[in-house]
Design a protein that fits this description.
four-stranded mixed beta sheet, alpha+beta, BTB domain-containing protein, SKP1/BTB/POZ_sf, two-stranded antiparallel ribbon, BTB/POZ_dom
Length: 271
């Protein structure tokens, strides 16, 4: 959280539907902060139980499929009936990317750490670190968060990326809506992430999600606006803005809507 002058309203309305910010409790250093929507946003409801765990019989009888991942061609294995819970993999198992004799799917652009999380979700409906319910506070938390890195090194990016953002984007590719919701919920609980990592992850999100995505993109827009006093002093932000991209036009629109909201709150009877 950041220390900043209190405003009468922290809300802004845009097509991304970002919500109000809560009052910051303490200051963080300029280079790092909490990335989330706020702990109260989208974390009080448990992960969906729509998908059930595979039965022992199905995993024993289903054929094993090998997945060749990334430029280094790391190998993973999964049961065909489990993989086919993803529309992408179901199509791949029956399409041109599937070598029927070897039962092999090639994913040269995927990151091994991300694919590992996707497989874990397909089997367990969660991925490490797990999302757990704090009964005393009635909130959801990341289990042993201090033991896990929030970022990954992706072969397509020079610097680190937020793991949950990469998982969200891959989940969108694989048609796993529940995994998208889970990844966004977990990202909302991350903290102490550098400005440069946030911006790199936001750019990744814009490249790897469709234009009508209102969740992950809106998450980043809301975050930058709430933490604007830090971002406006950041050299990383200056460099990113000079490079441009749709992210910054959307940010401009969101900032304008935020200002309009503040003026409406301050002058409720003005026209």
């Amino acid at each position: 959280m950041f220390g900043r002058r209190p405003a009468q309203s922290d809300s802004f309305s845009s097509r991304y539907g970002a919500g109000k910010s809560q009052k910051p409790k303490k200051s963080f250093k300029e280079t790092s902060f909490q990335t989330g929507l706020r702990r109260g946003d989208s974390v009080r409801s448990p992960p969906s139980k729509h998908t059930t765990s595979p039965s022992a019989g199905s995993t024993l009888t289903s054929p094993i499929v090998t997945l060749c991942v990334g430029p280094q061609q790391r190998l993973f294995a999964g049961h065909e009936d489990i993989l086919c819970r993803s529309p992408y993999f179901e199509k791949a198992c029956r399409g041109q990317f599937y070598d029927g004799s070897a039962r092999r799917i090639n994913l040269p652009d995927e990151c091994p750490e991300v694919l590992s999380a996707v497989l874990e979700f397909l089997y367990k409906q969660d991925y490490s670190p797990r999302l757990i319910h704090n009964k005393r506070k009635d909130t959801w938390e990341i289990e042993d968060a201090d033991k896990y890195e929030a970022t990954i090194v992706h072969h397509a990016v020079k610097g680190p990326l937020l793991k949950d953002t990469a998982i969200y984007c891959s989940a969108d590719r694989y048609g796993l809506s529940e995994l998208k919701r889970l990844a966004l919920r977990k990202q909302g609980l991350q903290s102490n992430v550098t400005v440069s990592t946030i911006l790199a992850s936001a750019r990744w999100a814009y490249i790897h999600t469709p234009d009508d995505d209102s969740k992950l993109r809106g998450h980043y827009l809301a975050l930058i606006i709430r933490s604007r006093n830090t971002f406006k002093r950041s050299s990383a932000m200056k460099t990113e803005m000079e490079e441009g991209g749709k992210l910054f036009f959307d940010l401009f629109v969101a900032m304008c809507n935020h200002i309009d909201d503040l003026q409406t709150v301050r002058s409720p009877f003005s026209r």
